[in-house]
Specification:
The chain is about 40% helix and about 10% strand. The protein is of the alpha/beta class and about 375 residues long. Helix 8 (about 240-255) links the parallel strand 9 and strand 10 (about 260-265). It binds thiamine diphosphate and magnesium ion. Magnesium ion (MG) binds near residues 174, 175, 204, 206 and 207. One of its GO terms (molecular function) is pyruvate dehydrogenase (acetyl-transferring) activity.
Length: about 375
Amino acid sequence: MSSTSHAFDISGSYELHNFETGPPETTEVTKEELVNIFETMYTMRRMEITCDNEYKARNIRGFCHLYDGQEAVACGIQAALAPEDSWVTSYRCHVLALMRGGSVSEVIGELFGKAGGVTKGKGGSMHMYNKEHNFFGGHGIVGAQVPVGTGLAFANKYKAKPGEPMNVAIACYGDGAANQGQIWESANMANLWDLPMIYCIENNHYGMGTSIDRHSSISDYYKMGNAIPGLRIDGMNVLSVIEGMKFAKEYVGAGNGPIYVEMMTYRYHGHSMSDPGTTYRNRDEIEFTRSNRDPVEHVKSCLQEADFMSAEEIKETEKRIRKEVQKEVMKAKEWATPEYKEVATDIYAKSLTPYDGTYPPFVRMPDFAKSFTFDV
Ligand SMILES: Cc1ncc(C[n+]2csc(CCOP(=O)(O)OP(=O)(O)O)c2C)c(N)n1
Ligand SMILES: [Mg+2]
């Protein structure tokens, strides 16, 4: 082991379904990598806490689903995949937008409805995309992103050069979505056609206010693909997520067909801002997770175990990131709202000419004769 890298024990992080061997039991990480992981995850945490505050100050309106508690999942996936791999997810998408080309100001600016937001202020919390960075949303309909992800995997296989590893696709969805028929229908095709597809269940134990014991007859989500192999990962340990996802990417990218990955994780906030998150679960449960399994605290303890950062240096870094996030928020607040004419741009596939900009297209106005639709 060199002085700037450290080996961490990640044994016990995985459970396998239809695999003889799984990811490794130790992982070697450099100082630079671990510091980068910490900074990324702490930025995610601060960004989501800031969203919470801005929402309560009524600077953000509408839906808003926060990701704090689940940071190791998004950070670990990003670290293991290549930028060319396609990623699609549910409405809980702020930090994924950050991983895929967005800045804090662009994500929060989107929530403020500003023109500089990742989707030009027109999507809001649930609809962030970045095609250039192979991020395909941000979907409000539970489970709908999974067939879309399967299509992305099909495209990646179609475009791959014969004999070379394929770019992969990943669709993240919740435990509450996992029993939907469309997921199995897509997975069946992916298995028949050996698509490079990762079905990634973020098991945060609740679908809105309903616990998995009440909404699912099976709790081993990684086994749900039946013949399709599965991997359950400790989703609170970012190092386990990275190694697990490298394993998954290699498996599907080599043409073996799809995989089910279950991330064991937890959300601290309620389902969305209208849910206090404490009526259907015990406050002690949240507190217990915060004190024993917190993914950011885990990275901090790894940094100290490896002597990569002292407690003092960690505190300094946190202070710096808190300031940076605040600065990004102030910047986004200064941005303009989108121009009225922009409202329909990039929304409909067909050109909107001769739209004259007087009324929003496709919105039914009280005087229907004034509503703008295409001539059909
Ligand atoms: C088809 C559909 N049904 C219901 C809803 C309302 N709804 C939004 S989120 C949600 C729960 C999803 O829980 P889960 O899949 O576990 O994801 P999590 O919110 O925990 O990330 C429901 C029922 C919806 N958006 N779409
Ligand atoms: Mg859930």
